[in-house]
Design brief:
Mean pLDDT: 84
Largest sheet: 5 strands, mixed
Shape: elongated
Low-confidence stretches: 28-48
Structural class: alpha+beta
Strand content: 15-25%
Radius of gyration: 38 Å
Number of strands: 9
Distance between the termini: 157 Å
Number of helices: 6
Order of helices and strands: HHHHHHEEEEEEEEE
Strand order of the largest sheet: 2-9-8-4-5
Length: about 375
C-alpha cells in the first residue's frame, strides 16, 4: 500500500494544475469580452456622430445639387432664345457649381458610413460634374464659343480670347446624349445610397435628388431636336462687328486759330515723325482672335505709300488700344493718313471701319 501514496499525490497535483489553467483561461476570456464590450460602448457614440455628420453634409450637397439641376433644366429649355454671352455665363456657372459640389463630396470619401456608402455618394457628384462639363463642351463646340475668362485666375489673360474648338452637329449630339446617360446613372446610384442609409440602423435621411428631364437628354431623338433648335437660333448666331472708335496723334494736332478745325484735316507742329494710336471695339457676338488693322501714310500730292499692319485679339463686347504705329515725316509736307480694319469674311456692317485724315506738317521757321 505505501507505494501507492506518491501516485495519488501526483494525480492531485496534475488535476490542480489543469484547474488553474482553466480558471486562468476563463479570466482572460472574461477580460477580453469585457474589453470588447467597452470598446463597442465607447465607439458607439463616435459612430453615431460620424453618421449624423455625414447626413448633414450630404444634405447640404444634395440640396445645392438640386438647385443646380433645376437651373440646368431651365437653361436647356430656353437656351435657343438666349444670347451667346448669356448662355456661356450660365453654362460656366453650372460647371463651377457642380465642381464645387464634387469637391464637397470628396471630403466624405474616407467616411465609412454603413459599409462604404460615402464612396458611392461621392461618385454621384463626380458623375454630375463630368456630365455638365461635357454638356458645356458640346454646346461650345457646336456654337463656336469657349468658357469666359475668370478675372484674376491663373492664365486668364491668355484665355480671354481663344479660337474655339468646333465640333459637328452629330458630334455634339453624341456628346450631349452621353452626358445625359451619365446623369441617369448618377440618379440611380443616388437613389440606392439614399434608400440604403434610410434602412440602416442609424436611419440616416437624405433629400431626394434627381436631375429630372436633364437625364432625358440621353435620348438621341430629343437631343437631335434640341441641337437643331440651337443651331438655327438667330440669337445664338455668330456675328462679326469690328469698329474703330478713336484715333490719337502724337504730337497732337494744333488748335485752329479760329477755334474751328476743318474736319478730316490735322495741322501739326514741325516734327520728324508722327505716332498713331487707335481703339478697336468688338461689337459682335464672337471673339476676334486675329483682328488686323492697317495703317497707311501717303505723301501728298503723290508718293509711295508706307503701310503697316497690326494684329490684335479682341474679345466680344470689349475694346482694345492698339500699339502705337510711328511714321517718319518731313516738316512742310502733307500726308494722307488712313486707318482701316481688315474685316472678317462674314462682317456685313462696315460702319466706322475706317478713318482718314490729312496731316499738314507745319514748316516752322
Amino acid at each position: 500500500m505505501p507505494p501507492l501514496i506518491p501516485r495519488r499525490r501526483s494525480r492531485r497535483r496534475s488535476l490542480s494544475g489543469r484547474a488553474v489553467m482553466v480558471v486562468c483561461g476563463l479570466i482572460v476570456t472574461v477580460v477580453l469580452l469585457g474589453g470588447l464590450t467597452q470598446v463597442q460602448k465607447q465607439s458607439g457614440p463616435f459612430t453615431a456622430s460620424t453618421d449624423r455628420s455625414f447626413a448633414r453634409t450630404g444634405t447640404v450637397i444634395s440640396d445645392a445639387s438640386n438647385v443646380t439641376g433645376t437651373n440646368v433644366r431651365h437653361l436647356l429649355a430656353v437656351m435657343r432664345s438666349e444670347s451667346r454671352r448669356s448662355l456661356q455665363e450660365q453654362l460656366d456657372t453650372a460647371v463651377q457649381q457642380v465642381t464645387d459640389q464634387q469637391s464637397e463630396a470628396d471630403t466624405l470619401i474616407g467616411t465609412d458610413v454603413q459599409g462604404g456608402l460615402g464612396a458611392q455618394f461621392r461618385t454621384v457628384f463626380t458623375d454630375r460634374a463630368r456630365a455638365v462639363t461635357e454638356l458645356r463642351t458640346a454646346l461650345d463646340g457646336l456654337l463656336g464659343m469657349h468658357p469666359l475668362a475668370v478675372p484674376g485666375a491663373p492664365g486668364s489673360a491668355s484665355t480671354a480670347v481663344a479660337a474655339p474648338t468646333l465640333v459637328s452637329a452629330s458630334a455634339a449630339i453624341n456628346r450631349i446624349a452621353a452626358a445625359g446617360a451619365v446623369l441617369q446613372t448618377s440618379n440611380t446610384l443616388y437613389r440606392g445610397v439614399r434608400h440604403a442609409l434610410a434602412r440602416s440602423e442609424a436611419h440616416l435621411k437624405l433629400p431626394v435628388s434627381t436631375w429630372a428631364n436633364v437625364s432625358d437628354l440621353s435620348s438621341i431623338s430629343a437631343v437631335t431636336t434640341a441641337v437643331d433648335l440651337v443651331a438655327t437660333s438667330s440669337s445664338l448666331a455668330a456675328t462679326h462687328n469690328l469698329e474703330l472708335r478713336t484715333l490719337q496723334l502724337s504730337p497732337p494736332a494744333l488748335p485752329s486759330p479760329s477755334g474751328a478745325n476743318t474736319p478730316g484735316v490735322s495741322v501739326m507742329s514741325p516734327t520728324g515723325s508722327v505716332s498713331v494710336s487707335v481703339v478697336l471695339a468688338n461689337l459682335g457676338s464672337v471673339d476676334e482672335p486675329g483682328a488686323t488693322v492697317q495703317f497707311s501714310l501717303i505723301p501728298q500730292p503723290g508718293g509711295a505709300a508706307v503701310v503697316k499692319n497690326r494684329r490684335v485679339a479682341v474679345a466680344t463686347g470689349t475694346a482694345v488700344t492698339l500699339g502705337t504705329v510711328t511714321f517718319p515725316v518731313k516738316s512742310g509736307h502733307d500726308y494722307q493718313l488712313s486707318v482701316s480694319v481688315m474685316l472678317p469674311p462674314d462682317q456685313t456692317d462696315v460702319t466706322n471701319t475706317s478713318i482718314s485724315d490729312l496731316l499738314e506738317i507745319d514748316p516752322g521757321t
